[in-house]
Design goal:
By secondary structure, the protein is mainly β. The chain is built from one helix and eight strands.
Length: 199
């Protein structure tokens, strides 16, 4: 879509948030999706400029994890990067690290790392890193990074890492927190006992 502000330059308070990444496709222990890049700034605009609203990623078991990343949002020359897709967890064809992006996706199952946030780099930062999976057999997935905090690492086998916190803005007239990361996946203890009992 396009907007028009006439000839003279205007200063516009803007909030540009990209589409978030999808969580890793998995039965258990996938990484959480990273938040889309979050950029709040005052922009000088004039004439015709273009606006793109980025879409969120779609979950799948595909490799690599950036196939689950969100897409960029654009306001004129300001670009917010799509959030990184979460790594795929157990019982998927390929387990994986989280993807890099505005905020990084969480790493999956056992040993995989979270993706890096604030890529490409902006100042102030547009996002944070994803959390890592637990380095252990059956380790839980990490949380996706958020606008203001990194995703948490997985804990043990049952507790996926929390998604990183978003950032509050009152640009619409009331405070709203946006661009939080998605939580990582864990497994349930009864499921392990069931497998042991019938194994």
């Amino acid at each position: 879509m396009a907007g028009t502000f006439g000839v003279a330059p205007y200063l516009v308070d803007s909030l540009v948030v990209a589409g978030g990444g999808a969580g890793g496709a998995t039965s258990t222990q996938g990484g959480g999706g990273g938040a889309g890049g979050y950029r709040a700034l005052t922009t000088s605009v004039s004439g015709t400029f273009f606006i793109t609203v980025g879409a969120g990623g779609a979950t799948s078991a595909s490799f690599p994890s950036d196939t689950r990343s969100g897409t960029n949002s654009v306001l004129g020359v300001t670009i917010s990067a799509g959030g990184g897709g979460g790594g795929s967890g157990s019982n998927t064809p390929v387990e994986s690290n989280g993807a890099d992006g505005g905020s990084g996706g969480g790493g999956a199952h056992n040993i995989f790392n979270g993706g890096s946030g604030n890529l490409p780099a902006t100042s102030p930062s547009q996002g944070s890193d994803g959390g890592d999976a637990v380095v252990a057999s059956g380790g839980a997935g990490g949380g996706g990074g958020g606008a203001s905090a990194a995703g948490a690492n997985g804990v043990g086998t049952t507790t996926g890492g929390n998604g990183g916190a978003g950032t509050s803005s009152s640009i619409t007239g009331s405070a709203v927190t946006r661009a939080g990361g998605g939580g990582g996946g864990g497994s349930t203890t009864p499921w392990h006992w069931w497998c042991w009992w019938w194994g």
